[in-house]
Amino acid sequence: MGTTEGTTTKRIDPDGVGTASGLDYQAFWTTDAPTGWLDQALGQAAVWVKERLGLEIDISQNDEAATSDRSKRAQIVHRQAGRDTGVRLRAWNTNAGTTFTVTVLAFDGPGGGSVNGRRVRGE
Fold first, then answer.
1. More exposed terminus of the chain, fewer Cβ within 10 Å: N or C?
2. pLDDT per residue over 33-56, tens digit each?
3. Can you tell me the distance from the alpha carbon of 1 to that of 37, in angstroms, rounded to the nearest whole number?
4. What is the pTM of this model?
């Protein structure tokens, strides 16, 4: 599936006031894999959404899903720009009054692609 490079960076609290969660993180990967890698990655994301949140989401088109109390939600948005394809998947999971938001941005084009994943704990 081509070569993949990745870097993971933990979030750092620049003010030193303790507002950043040790559970927050951001990661970025690039790949020169041939066309089709993004569909495979989205398939894995759909499995993660189903297993982690209990939600079914159609990854092939813009879609949203949520539990009846909206404590768990997922949304996928696709964009096309010329020969480039972009996708944003967001998932929200609220437990004990704290919401975790996971955002995955992916881009694929003739020259390769990239994925940016981020998880942030809200209040």
1. C
2. 887 889 888 999 999 999 999 999
3. 7
4. 0.76
